[in-house]
Amino acid sequence: MTLKEQKIGFLGAGKMASAIIKGLLKYGISPENIAAGERWTPAAEAARKDFGIFVTDDNADVVRRSDILIIAVKPKDIAEALSTAGDTEHKLFISIAAGVTINSLEKLVGSNARVIRVMPNICATVLQSATGISRGTNATADDAAIAMEIFSAIGVALEINENLLDAVTGLSGSGPAFIFQIIEAMADGGVYSGLDRATAQMLAAQTVLGAATMVVESGMHPGALKDMVCSPGGTTIEGVAVLEQRAVRAAFTDAVIAATDKSEQLGKKK
Ligand SMILES: NC(=O)C1=CN([C@@H]2O[C@H](COP(=O)(O)OP(=O)(O)OC[C@H]3O[C@@H](n4cnc5c(N)ncnc54)[C@H](OP(=O)(O)O)[C@@H]3O)[C@@H](O)[C@H]2O)C=CC1
Ligand SMILES: O=C(O)[C@@H]1CCC=N1
Q: Is residue 205 part of a domain?
């Protein structure tokens, strides 16, 4: 069965499920092939209205209708969501929850459960997620292939050993928030110097997009690319010196490590 023929259900229709659904619809999956189970909240109403998908507060109905279930509730809500999922046999479960291990997911879904743990990011909404994928004990090669297909449809996906998924969570799962902070702060700098907010934000965002594209397309070390911008005695090295004085690179490294540690801690709570 191709991805476009699969019935995909979501347990939880909040921010991240919506990002993935939006991406899948952009990719060309029919809304008729997507269902979501959600507490009857504004998130549910928005998913129904915005995406035209089937939305219900009956998780078991979503499971019945779907071949693949994407667990998209907060880590603390997984046990409850799965306890209301009804007959989970013969289904593939893909969890996007931070920190929740394959071992605990398999215990919650059932002993023979086909489980895949993934960590996408919010950029799925514009088909630019960076996603790590780890296959559970009973998931087949076909299951891993379909998970790769789903997350490759909404960005870049790679299979990775589960012991590295917390690091993926700290880096690319949480990373968009760090980059949004950079864009906000750079735009503030532009506004400080007289640019209007909209212009400053557009210039900041396009600069991040362009710089990221150069790293991806050239494969060059970012430090070497930085050197290409820094004219001797010029403007850029003045700014770079300020960032170094404020230990900005160390702060970003530490932010990724802190988010990774938190993902590990969430896993130990289970
Ligand atoms: N946000 C992000 O950028 C990313 C998030 N993730 C992971 O995705 C998951 C979801 O995060 P996010 O989308 O941000 O969270 P949200 O709170 O936006 O979405 C979760 C939704 O699930 C609903 N929900 C809770 N319990 C149940 C239940 N038993 N049955 C059905 N629906 C339920 C919640 O309702 P209510 O609000 O009433 O509780 C909420 O609307 C988390 O596990 C997170 O770790 C992964 C990558 C990136
Ligand atoms: O902050 C969180 O816990 C989730 C997981 C990765 C991004 N957001």
A: yes
Q: Is residue 237 part of a domain?
A: yes
- The pLDDT tens digits of the residues spanning 183-195 come to 999 999 999 999 9
- Please give all residues whose beta carbon lies within 6 A of any atom in ligand 1, as ranges: 11-12, 14-17, 37-39, 41, 43, 59, 72-75, 77, 80-81, 96-98, 119-122, 173
- Residues with CB under 6 Å of ligand 2 are 98, 169, 173-174
Catalogue the E-assigned strands of the chain. 8-11, 34-37, 54-56, 68-71, 92-95, 114-119, 129-135, 155-159
**pLDDT single digits (tens) 125-155:** 999 999 999 999 999 999 999 999 999 999 9
Find the CATH number of the domain harbouring 253. Answer: 1.10.3730.10
The residue out of 125, 141, 165 marking a domain boundary is: 165
Neighbours of 214 (CB within 10 A): 14
161 annotated among ligand-binding-site residues: no
